[in-house]
Amino acid sequence: MDFSERNFTNEFVFQASRSSGPGGQNVNKVSSKVELRFSVNDSQLLSEEEKIIVAEKLSNKMNKLGEIVLVAQTDRSQLKNKEKVIEKFYLLLERALMPRIKRYKTRPTRASVERRLESKRVLSGIKTNRKEPGLE
């Protein structure tokens, strides 16, 4: 499922502000930090099923208004930060909507069971040897 084919740019709301951290005078003057807001509920490009899945899986990235909020502030350029936050959005959406692979139950191999039991015997022996002699 490739979401870069869908053009979400009309649904993005960008906000630029001053970045934190090192950078000297550039940090104080230039608004290079970019914040992307995407309203999941108001999206025309996501189906109702996709909206539900995104809301469940990305609830930690959403605010109370149902918007996904992403921030990029690593570069000194606002344009580069904007590109990074868009890339981050598409990657996040792709991971959220990727179907889970069903796990099939498997039995442990005989060798793995033997290794586990052997390590338990060794640890038991070590703990037994810690006791003072003559207590039993």
What is the residue-averaged pLDDT?
83
Rough outline? elongated
Biggest β-sheet strands, sense, barrel:
3 strands, antiparallel
CATH architecture field of the domain at 3-97: 2-Layer Sandwich
Distance, first to last CA: 67 Å
Helix content: 40-55%
Strand order within the widest beta sheet: 1-2-3
Strand residues, percent: 5-15%
Looking at the structure, the CATH topology of the domain at 3-97 is Double Stranded RNA Binding Domain
Number of strands: 3
The sequence of SSEs as H and E is: EHEHEHH
Q: Ranges with pLDDT <50 over ≥5 residues?
A: none
CATH class of the domain at 3-97: Alpha Beta
In angstroms, what is the radius of gyration?
26 Å
Task: Give the structural class.
Answer: alpha+beta
Note the total helix count. Answer: 4
Structural write-up:
The protein is an alpha+beta fold and 136 residues long. It has a domain at 3-97: Double Stranded RNA Binding Domain. It has 4 helices and 3 strands. It has a 3-stranded antiparallel sheet with strand order 1-2-3, covered by helices on one side. The radius of gyration is 26 Å and the shape is elongated.
